[in-house]
Specification:
The chain contains one helix and eight strands; from the N terminus they run βββββββαβ. The chain has a six-stranded mixed sheet with strand order 2-1-3-4-6-7. A two-stranded parallel ribbon has the order 5-8. About 5% of the residues lie in helices and about 45% in strands.
């Protein structure tokens, strides 16, 4: 059964999708720097990234100088938390350089 999952690619791209396994989000010429699950809070414009990938582990944000995010998510505050907690997470939007494509 498909679930909302994300990965961080070696090109710095944050990629989201409904898949069974995280590796399904990778393209042929890419490597993965980890992943997890996602959910949106449209009332507060938050994108919560949480958990880890059983295929690739926790996202290694420090491996990427710039996090490339789809323009579909512009305006969202992007938070990563290990245990699905909004308040204690890493604010990707402010703690990292984000570029929209």
């Amino acid at each position: 059964m498909s679930q909302p999952k994300f990965i961080l690619t070696n090109k710095g791209e944050l990629r989201l999708g409904m898949v069974n396994r995280h590796y399904e989000l990778l393209k042929a010429d890419e490597h993965c720097y980890g992943g997890g699950y996602y959910e949106f809070d449209y009332l507060s414009n938050h994108l919560l990234l949480w958990g880890f990938s059983t295929d690739f582990g926790k996202p290694r944000w420090e491996k990427c100088q710039v996090i490339n995010v789809s323009t579909n998510y512009r305006g969202f505050r992007i938070i990563y938390s290990t245990w699905r907690e909004w308040e204690t997470g890493i604010n990707i939007s402010t703690d990292h350089e984000v570029s929209y494509f």
